[in-house]
Amino acid sequence: MALDKKLNAWIAAGLIDAATAERIRAHEVQDEKPFVLWAIAGLGLLALALGIMSLVAAHWDEIADGLKLGVHLLLTGAATAAVWLGCGRGNRWLADGAIFVLGAVVLAGIALQSQIYQLTGPLWQALLMWLVLMTPVALLAGSTRLSAYGWSLMAMTSLAAVATDMRDDQYGLVVQGFAMAGPAMLIAMSFLRAVGRGVEFRVGMREIGFIGLLGGASIAHFGWADSVDASTAHDMLLRLILPAVAALVAWQLGVRSGETPRAMLLPLTMIPTVAGALALALPHPDSWMSRFVGALIFATMWGLVARAASLCGWRTLFGIAIAAIAIRIFIVYFELFGTLATTGAGLIVAGLLLIGLAALWRRILRLEETA
Questions:
Q1: Contact assessment for residue 338 and residue 312, using Cβ atoms and an 8 Å cutoff
Q2: Residue 68: which pLDDT band, with cuts at 50, 70 and 90?
Q3: Percent of the chain at pLDDT exceeding 90
Q4: Cα(266)–Cα(147) distance, integer angstroms
Q5: For residue 272, what are the β-bridge partners?
Q6: Is the pLDDT of residue 30 over 80?
């Protein structure tokens, strides 16, 4: 129905004639997929899986430990065989789907063995074991963004779990720094052609790394709203050594590979690292001046990202950068000029700035469209 409306509108506007519209309609009908039937079938499979899981859970204590481990071994072998079969046939969706299933089965197996043998320990040990077991499979057989997203998110989650369980001694600071370097390491690895079985997998890793760096720098920005003494800044500086090195390596590998526009590399690697370091490793009091300086650094970071995204045609990232700056401008008036915001003057000024920012955003997009 939606296609018919569009075709009729195009005919009325003189963009196409009736014969062309009929050919488009025939082509779309031929390629139309039965999404409703697939959805019903998917719901049926989901209900079947949930039913089996419910029956197993109801009789879990009655099932012999050997049978549990044996079934898990069979599932692991089947998922591994599916990965191998998908890679051998060049069916990347089969291979990557099997990687997802294998990852879930391996994680479930770790929990199962812990339950049977009554093993106890921190969560990071189980996640780290999963990471050790699944990393070779993902990096050698992964070929789509789907598997890249899954493995990358699990990798950063595992590193974060390790970091949160460490003490703030010399060893703990190094481990925490290694975890903080996770996003930059993902970006650096994504520029190595030996990683994954295609460009899509590396691009997926790179996107998660960019999100991690920009998101981490934005969260670190809250450090400007708290006091940082010399001792805390010294410890944070030790943590930031490895992230800075990883970001530098990622930038250099990106320049050499040429897979990402050079104008985007600095704003997406080094600039967030520097912005985060200034917020966390630079001693400062909790004052309005510190918050104002922090807001300027935040706006500068995202402004450089917006400028690079505009030059390179990354419109989605450009929109995110402008939105981040707009939200920060709106918040800064509540932080610095609470009384003015209460009377409405601050909101008026903030509203005018946001309107001006939106107008500038629209003007840049129009210049891109006419270029």
A1: no
A2: confident
A3: 32
A4: 27
A5: none
A6: no
Mean pLDDT over residues 93-114, rounded? 85
Q: Which residues contact 202 (CB under 8 A, 6 or more apart)?
A: 148, 190, 191, 192, 193, 195, 196, 259
Tell the burial category of 204 from Cβ atoms under 10 Å away from its Cβ (0-12, 13-18, 19+): buried
Report field, pTM of the whole predicted structure over 0.85: no
Question: Which residues, other chains included, contact 87 with Cβ-Cβ below 8 Å and sequence gap of 6+?
Answer: 95, 141, 197
- Residue pLDDT, tens place only, 267-285: 999 999 999 999 999 999 9
The residues near 236 (Cβ < 8 Å, ≥ 6 apart) are: 228, 277, 280, 281
210 neighbors 268 (Cβ within 8 angstroms): yes
Q: Answer whether 182's CB lies under 8 Å from 198's CB.
A: no
Residue 16 tokens read as 């196409």
Task: Quick: pLDDT tens for 131-164.
Answer: 999 999 999 988 888 889 989 999 999 999 998 8
112-126 burial: b if 16+ Cβ within 10 Å, else e: bbeeeeeeeeeebbb
Q: How many beta carbons lie within 10 A of that of residue 7, not counting itself?
A: 19
Say how many Å lie between the first and final Cα of the chain, rounded.
35
Helices (H), 258-337: 262-268, 270-281, 288-312, 315-336
Distance CA 79, CA 72 (A): 11
| Residue partners of 325: CB distance under 8 A and separation at least 6 | 298, 299, 302, 303, 306, 357
